[in-house]
Amino acid sequence: MAELMAAMSLATDISMGQPMEDGLAVCLLATRLAEFLELSEPERVHVYYSALLRHIGCTADMHVLAAAVGDDVAMRSAFITVDLGRPVEMFAAMMRHIGQTYAPLERPAALVRVMAATGKFRSGGDVQCEVAEMLAARFGFDDSFQRDITSVLERWDGKGFPGRLRGEEITPAARVVGVANLAAVCHRVEGPSAALDVLRDRSGTAFDPAVVAGFVARGAELFAVLEADSAWDRVLEAEPGERPVLSGTRLDEALQAMGDFADLKSPYTVGHSRGVADLAARAAERCGLPSDDVVATRRAGWVHDIGRVAVSSAIWDKPGPLTRPEWEKVRLHAYHADRVLARPRFLESIGRIASMHHERLDGSGYFRQAPAGQQPPAARILAVVDAYHAMTEPRPYRPAMTPDQIADELRLEVKAGRLDPDALRGVLDAAGMPVGRRREQVAGLTAREVEVLRLLARGLSIKQIARTLQISPKTADAHIQHIYRKAGVSSRAAATLFAMQHDLVASETASTASED
Ligand SMILES: [Fe+2]
Prior knowledge:
By secondary structure, this protein is an all-alpha fold. The protein is 63% helix and 0% strand. The chain is built from 28 helices and no strands. The longest helix has 22 residues, at 118-139. The structure holds fe (ii) ion. Residues 305, 333, 357-358 line the site of fe (ii) ion. The site of fe (ii) ion has 4 residues, from loops.
């Protein structure tokens, strides 16, 4: 549970335009502060998890914010240390954001839009809290945790976010996390003594004076916890209480919730991840993947777009073509997914499949531009399913496409060498579409055997082939023996000649071979 929630914390960091691990720093500070304040163990568990999950409602309603302010991620970042109790400070931050986001001639209209949308921002707080409560419940947290999570940005003077509570109405855990939240950011940006000054300045207005006093009294010791090599490991070590474990259907439900969190970033993608997961699992079964791989493919489907949250809703919802810089940001979402999912050990292999969903067999995808040989079957299936499912959904620049249009588009992609033909057959079959006649392979070889043959023909050893295709050396050897028999040859040299004659030594294998 702690690992998954820490990964959620990384995702919420990037959704707020902050460096990854800010949330981990908040968690470390808050948990240690709770010890110094002698909170009970159950209260410290609340502090720990509400620090990690303090922004899980943050993707809700972002399209409304983006429509008014442009880049919602940059705007959240601009407000991260602003005192919400001081209207002048808030107005100055907004002006700074508009100045950085819009060209001079666009700024007056942008300001009018922002002022007109002020009411919506306020109701947006309620929407975000509601979403945070629902997501927290699906991660397995009860009502009392949900109250903590939705109260961390409330203020002692009642002028906080969403502005429902004041003073001791705010739970003890939320009061501790609120202080740690600001302290961590100010410490990163301005250093320890400036961070303590800001806390003192907001004591009694934003924060509970007793919590601030506790922090200031032990400031040096508290900030020392941020000097560790690996905040990730320290956070896992710092978990108080019984350390719940997620597995089976509870883990599935949590991963699905993670996907929903990402999809909320845009009205156009709501339901995308769960649709992808469902279709990808059925396609993986039809493609004959082992049952463990089917489970991994489904789980990768749920979380594949988690990196979307780092990109502004203004880009996802843009009705026209993207500019080059906007495209660069879009390409990064697969990278962000990889980095968020690489941290929990149990998600490593799922994360690798998930973050390959925009790769293409000819190396033209992103973010790795991985060649075909590095794309395992589950990743190939997920790439087809993601493309398929996205086309069933409307986008701001086109309506939803019909199943026949989608099948035609995907067949063109297969023909161009970008998507895997076997994966497409499995996906169309799983989606209830006619799959057409199986394409004749060279000498009756399967698509996988052709891949093995290509690598073999380029001079790779059995071990290298196994590593490139992520299969065992024994399986690679079995494929090679089968190829020899089917191709009617008995040696590597003959097999290479056979591959050359059939034009199977594709350029995509060249880089892999030369690396080895
Ligand atoms: Fe994506």
